[in-house]
Automatic annotation (TrEMBL):
<feature type="transmembrane region" description="Helical">
    <location>
        <begin position="81"/>
        <end position="102"/>
    </location>
</feature>
<keyword id="KW-0472">Membrane</keyword>
<protein>
    <submittedName>
        <fullName>Fusaric acid resistance family protein</fullName>
    </submittedName>
</protein>
<dbReference type="InterPro" id="IPR049453">
    <property type="entry name" value="Memb_transporter_dom"/>
</dbReference>
<feature type="transmembrane region" description="Helical">
    <location>
        <begin position="153"/>
        <end position="172"/>
    </location>
</feature>
<feature type="domain" description="Integral membrane bound transporter">
    <location>
        <begin position="42"/>
        <end position="165"/>
    </location>
</feature>
<keyword id="KW-0812">Transmembrane</keyword>
<feature type="transmembrane region" description="Helical">
    <location>
        <begin position="108"/>
        <end position="141"/>
    </location>
</feature>
<feature type="transmembrane region" description="Helical">
    <location>
        <begin position="28"/>
        <end position="46"/>
    </location>
</feature>
<keyword id="KW-1133">Transmembrane helix</keyword>
<dbReference type="GO" id="GO:0016020">
    <property type="term" value="C:membrane"/>
</dbReference>
<dbReference type="Pfam" id="PF13515">
    <property type="entry name" value="FUSC_2"/>
</dbReference>
Amino acid sequence: MTTTAGSPGGLRARLVEAGRGGYRRLQTYLIVALQAGLAAALAWVVAREVLGNPEPTFAPAAAVAVIAASLGRRAHRALELVAGVVLGIGAGDLLIGLFGTGPWQTGVIVFLAIAAAVLVRGTGALMTQAGGTAVLIATLTPSAPDLEWPRTINALVGGAAGLLVMLVLLPINPLRTVRRAAEPALDLFAREMTASAQALAEADTGRAQATLERMRAADPTLKRLTEVANAADEVVRFSPVRWRRRRAIAAYRGGVTHMQRAFRNSRGLVRRIGTTLRDQEPVPADLPAAVEHLGQAVRLLNREFLAGQEPVQARARVLRAVREAGGACRQGLGFSGTIVVSQLRTAANDLLRATGVPHDEARRLVREAAAD
């Protein structure tokens, strides 16, 4: 008996999956919460107790802003934060000295600060800091003179505290973090390939469409994997305690990029499976077998990836999928079925690259397997 989306069983399955997703996100991002708390406390102590700043609020806020930046962009975010404060102060000082303070002066100051950030090709974070600082300078200068220097010091303290915590005191474990993020992405990839193979074997157009919709909705999972891979790369480049992991993370980083390409090419494959079924094109038994073997290759890659092993089994299963697809071609396919095979070969090439096979070698292996 099938379980419908609105049935108690379907609701329970969705709740279980949501719970698993939440737990995985917590595993990935709990370290961020710890880093933010430590950086905020450290920034406050340095600004208030060491430097004697009676209003240290912006220092912990700046530290949290650095930590809360997109993973893999934190060092850049710290520089943007300080640069934005300096731009805002510069614009504020310039116009207040010329025109005084007031509503129109505030508007002009903010305009100039953000325009300056745009001219130096700043991102939204830089523009936000420049504009926000300009507002504070324009509105608080009459009641709180000499605001510029403490805010600049606070920005420096907060940015430095965030970087110190992120890179020295409490850096992420790059290998463990990447593996945790990769596991759900690879698991999802493998499941949808199996579902696609079943849809193709059973001529179930509805299942093929549902699989395609789930794969389209998987972009947040891929985005999270990209963020985590970038964060790991940033840590091993800048953190002295993680330098020895540089080579391993470089390999994983390249693997993540190719795995994402394989997923997106497989999404095109699933779309063409739906067209093949709607047009009632011939479907030799080797074609769903090839798609299933591609899913099994992803499962093996996940297992070997998490175990830190050379993905030999995953490579062998990828090439088996290509051979099965070649057999389906020789048995006769329609137009869309031929495109399914082409997309499968492209995804297979990407998966081989994800396992560390060089570009030319991957192309050669796929070409030879297709001809077997």
